[in-house]
Design brief:
alpha/beta; 31% helix
Length: 429
Amino acid sequence: MSRRFRPRIDTLLWMGQAPSGGATAREPAGGGGAPPQATSDLALTIISVDDHLVEPADTFTSRLPARLAERAPRVVEHDGTELWDFDGQRHGQIGLNAVVGRPREEWSLEPARFDEMRRGCFDVDQRVADMDLDGVYASLCYPSLIAGFAGTMFARCSDPDLGFACMQAWNDWHLEEWAGAHPDRLIPLQLPWLLDPTVAAGEIRRNAERGFKAVSFVENPVEMGLPTLHTDHWDPFLAACEETETVICLHCASGGWSASHTPGAPLEQLTTLFPVNALVTCADWLWSGVLLRFPGLRICLAESGVDWVPMLANRIDYVMDHSASGQGGWPAGAMHPTDVLRRNFWFGVIDVTPTIGALGDQIGLNHIVLESDYPHADSTWPDTQALATEGLAGMPASAVRKITWENAATLFRHPVPDDRQLPEGKPGL
């Protein structure tokens, strides 16, 4: 594909991370956190469907073909910082993306070194230890800046062969070194090849055979200069995801767009509007018709929240009876779009609000999943267990089980051992 991406945001603050410094990295100041909790001390089993990893410096070492090895992403030192050097550009770290364990007064937007990060950001064994501190049983981890949430950095590469090799190398590393190190605790998430949907389909099938359960895709491809969902361009990729039961994960801002456009607006405005991304994304995927052509697709929205979903459903109901009538935007006789909304989408929640019970009745409790967002500034770590227990207090045990782990376990086909299933009770009741 000859067209170049057109990112709408110069710096996506929640995307930037940096690699690790290796075994000598120290714990940052204030990196303690909650004391360890034995399984018997936990009130809930939790699967977090949105966390992040920081790629270590050796992620691409020995994973690219010999002819491309010298051009692989690598870590370099510059003015006391550590940067990724790739395709003629250098990519810094942004502090707010790896702040777990640090006191709030040390949070900043300045680049951070790896020895300033908590080791759980990049060391998989320490990540699992931090999950234990947080009372999280299993986690699905998105990539960081050197990859982009959906492999967009590799698709932007000036040499598509190099970009494709880097995408494969990242997937190999994720499966072998990250999720593969603790397969019971980490859910494998792959990156797609965005420049050719037929090639991407082949990778989805190959990776499904290797054990990948999900793929991180862009919210709206057209925002990245790629063909719109409102064509059949992506059908080979979508068909492969449906065939292999690969969950399509759409992380907030993966398409490089935000509803926060006003010059001079603070960071807090941008992060406040994260759910607007999910609303726009959901509406676009619905009206594109891809979920009528591929009804078995499962889409998980990260950092979406759920408060906006009834509003979207109500508006769609009204539009279907008014401005949509006779315009051909939705095929006659097809499943109603609000039913598709409740069938094909799952919604990730970080902050468990008092309205979640009522919203679950409108949306369907089977489609709400929990997030920790480790190690970002939005993260609930190390209080995910406590905050979920408090936020879900008073709800039936069956509903709590669904939101905290059953829905995610079913969606990502990631079973939870019988002795880790809390609160106790017969599943589904």
